[in-house]
Amino acid sequence: MAKAKLPDALARRHLVEKSLAPAQALRLAEAYLEQERVVEALVFLQKAGAVDRLRAIAEQAKLDGDVFLMRQTAALLGEAPSAADWRAAAEAAREQGKLRFAADAERQATRQES
Questions:
Q1: In sequence order, what DSSP letters do the residues of 19-40 get, joined into one string?
Q2: For the chain, is the Cβ count within 10 Å smaller at the N or the C terminus?
Q3: Is residue 1 part of a domain?
Q4: Of residues 57, 112, 66, the one with CA closest to residue 89
Q5: Beta carbons of 105 and 93 less than 8 angstroms apart
Q6: Which domain holds residue 43?
Q7: Can you list the alpha helix ranges (DSSP code H) found in the chain?
């Protein structure tokens, strides 16, 4: 299957800044996800109201130990990860050799517990 043509950076910026119909936003998000450009898809998932998809990406980020993506999804959802989520992310990051992510996740877990 041919990859969908995505907007260039300037066109993307304009799409991010304007109001989009949920269906159009979801199509854009799916096109970005198809090309494994998850971070770029996030804002369009939010515009589409695809909360379940955002939560699924947040869960996968935790399993992957991807602290950056956890923060991005948390900000869009307005839901801070729990200390247990941060600890799970730290462990996953450590197992994958992502030591900076592991240390960052541990700090976040400690802050949540305070």
A1: ---HHHHHHHHHHHHHTT-HHH
A2: N
A3: no
A4: 66
A5: yes
A6: 20-113
A7: 9-17, 22-34, 38-48, 51-64, 67-77, 83-95, 99-113
